[in-house]
Amino acid sequence: MKIGKSHLKITNLLLIASVAVLLFGTGYKLGEYKLSLGQNTQISSNSKNIDFSMFWKVWDTMEKKYVDQKKIDPKKMYYGAIKGLVASVEDPYTFFLTPVENKQSKDGLEGKFEGIGASLGMKGSRVVVMSALKDSPAEKAHIQTGDFIVKVNNEAIVGMPLTQVVSKVRGDKGTTVHLTLERDGKEVVIDVVRDTIHVKSVEVKLDEKLSTCTDNCDHVAYLTLNQFGDSTIDEWAQGVADIKAKWESGEIKGLVLDLRDNPGGYLESSVYLAGEFLDQGKLVVKQESTSYENKDYFVTRQGSLLSIPMTVLINGGSASAAEILAGALRDYKRAALVGEKSFGKGSVQEAIDLGDGMGLHVTVAKWVLPKGDWINGKGIEPETKVVNVIPAGDTLSRSLDKQLDTAIERILK
After folding, report:
1. Which of 75, 87, 362, 380 is a plausible cystine mate for 27, CB 3.0–4.6 Å?
2. What predicted TM-score, i.e. pTM, was given to this entire model?
C-alpha cells in the first residue's frame, strides 16, 4: 500500500529479540557523525532550542581520550547517535537501520539469505540436519537429513547453541564452509560453496494425515505460511489452486493453515489472504492513526476456499500480519484456532528509505480486529490450547506435533 510518496510502504514487521539487541543495544552509547556541520549548532524543534554544544563536547572528548583509538569510528558513532535518537521514544518497533541492516531487513521480506540451504535442528543435544532445500548447495553437496554436524571450519561445535552454529554455517555467497559430519557412525567431510537461498513463503502438502493413522486415512491439505513477504501472494495463488482442486474432487476433508512462528510482514498481504476464506465486504482489520486517516480494510475479491472446513495453528511466534489473519478468521467463526497464545503485536510501521542505503521504521498506527479487539501486548488465545512436548535436546518432528494432530482431529469430527 502506498502512502503519499511512492517510496513509503506500510509494513507490519515483528522485531525479533536478537535484532532488537543489534539495533538498540548500542543506541545510547555512540555519538553522532559530524558530517558537514563543522561546528556546534542549535536546532529549533517544536519551539524548543536544543543546544548541541554538550553533544560535540562528548564527541571531541571520546576522539581525544578514549583508551582504544582503534574503536573510534566516526561513521559508527554517527549511526549510533541516530539509533539513540530514535530509541528515545521507547518503541521497540520504531528503529533506524544502517545500510547493512536495511538490506538484511529487505532480504528477509524477499525470502532470501546467503548460506547453504539446510534446515538445522537439535537431537539429543546435538545439531542435526533436518532437511536440505531443493536445488540448494547443501543438496548438491549430498548433505542428508539426519547428518550430525561435528565441526564447522574445523571448529568443534559441541555444546554450542543452535543459533550460533547456524551463524557459523551461513556466510556470503561464493565463500566455502568446511563441514565435518557424522553419518551412520562414520565421519564425513564436505566442502559447501554458499549461495543465495530463497525460502518459500508458502508450503503446501495435500495428503497430510493424523500421525497415528496408518491405513485408510482421511487426508487434509496442510498449508504452511512462513511470512507475509514480497513473494507471498504469488506463491499463495498456486497453493490455493492445488487445494481447491483436491477439495472439489473430494480427496481432502479440509485445510490446516499453519501460522506458527510466522513473524508477519505486509499488512496488505494479510488482508488479501483473508479474502480467500471470507466473503466479499467483510471487514478484516481497522487501522487507527494520528499520522494518517483511519482506514478499514475489507475483503474486495471472491475467494476460492470459502466453504472448506479449516483450522488455524498459532503459537508465540505468530505475530502482526499472522495475527490479523488468524484473528479475522476467529472473529467470523470461519476457523478454530489451535495451539498457543500468539505474540501480541498490534501496531503498524512505515518503512522509509532515507538514502545512502539507510532506513527508518516508524510506528504510525495501531490495528484492531473486526470485533474491536486490540491484541497488542496480550496476543490471541486459541480456542483449543495444545502445547507440544519436545524431549530435551530434540526439535519438533511430525510424530511429536500434537498441535497439528489436534487441528486435523477438529476438521475430521
Report:
1. 87
2. 0.74
